[in-house]
UniProtKB/TrEMBL annotation:
InterPro entries: Cyt_c-like_dom, Cyt_c-like_dom_sf, Cytochrome_c-type_DH. PROSITE patterns: CYTC. Coiled coil: none annotated. It comes from the Bacteria. This is Cytochrome c. Keywords: Heme, Iron, Metal-binding. Signal peptide: none annotated. It comes from Defluviimonas salinarum. Residues 38-146, 187-293 form the Cytochrome c domain. Pfam families: Cytochrom_C, Cytochrome_CBB3.
Amino acid sequence: MRRILLSLTILAATGAAGAWFVLRPEPLPADALAGLEADAVRGEQVFWAGGCAACHSAEKAEGADRLVLKGGRRFPSPFGTFVAPNISNDPAAGIGTWTALGLANAMLRGVSPEGRHYYPVFPYASYARATLQDVVDLRAFLATLPADPSPSAPHEVAFPYNIRLGLGLWKRLHLDDGWVVAGDLNQAETRGRYLVEALGHCGECHTPRGGLGAMDRNRWLAGAPIPGGKSRFPNLTPAKLTWSEADIVAFLTTGFTPDYDSVGGAMAEVVDGLSHLAPSDRAAIAAYLKRVVPAE
């Protein structure tokens, strides 16, 4: 009997060790950012391209208040309601003590400074394609923004989705830093791909998802239901978005469609962020969208 119990104990320990190996968080190497120098001016462009204010500022924040990243916005989903955390420069409530490597682990690997998995509602499935230089620059810019002491609210996620260790398996199945639109792209299209697929994380809203919440890359940007709502994020592929590149650029700059309708909802904040970018970046996004595979 003691031999049987010992064997079962060894098997259980081996199984637990194997499960931990598969499900464990995998941060970047400690020297991943070696040789990179931060530039806060470039980081501001990364900030606006990445849509940080659209999730982490207060609801309906305008002007300078959009730079106060106190968190608190609620995002319903089939898995529960997620609450945007405070990522202001506050050392206790926010990320004031984070290093650039800590931010890189969060954005590219979905791993917290404490070594825990983040939920993919934080769009690291897209940010995984971002360059380390952009993350270093972004960290420098975030350090210039106001600190806010508002505590982050917990996510409202029930069992089994509240078991974060299971996210290790989700990452192994779905975390992919490869480009969706491949092929021979010109310089503008390549830049647009980076802005759309990586920093802008446009697919997170505009791409349908499977049962485990991963983006369906076979229907990239084909439109998707708005969680908790009755409408849909629109189809951005050429099958539906038939505007000219000039029309797309104008929309991303002013928020007005070719029919003189105005942007609303969450997209208004996206346009506000993109309006801070260089005109060539908005043109690059338009060029890229014309290269996306049409999807009805």
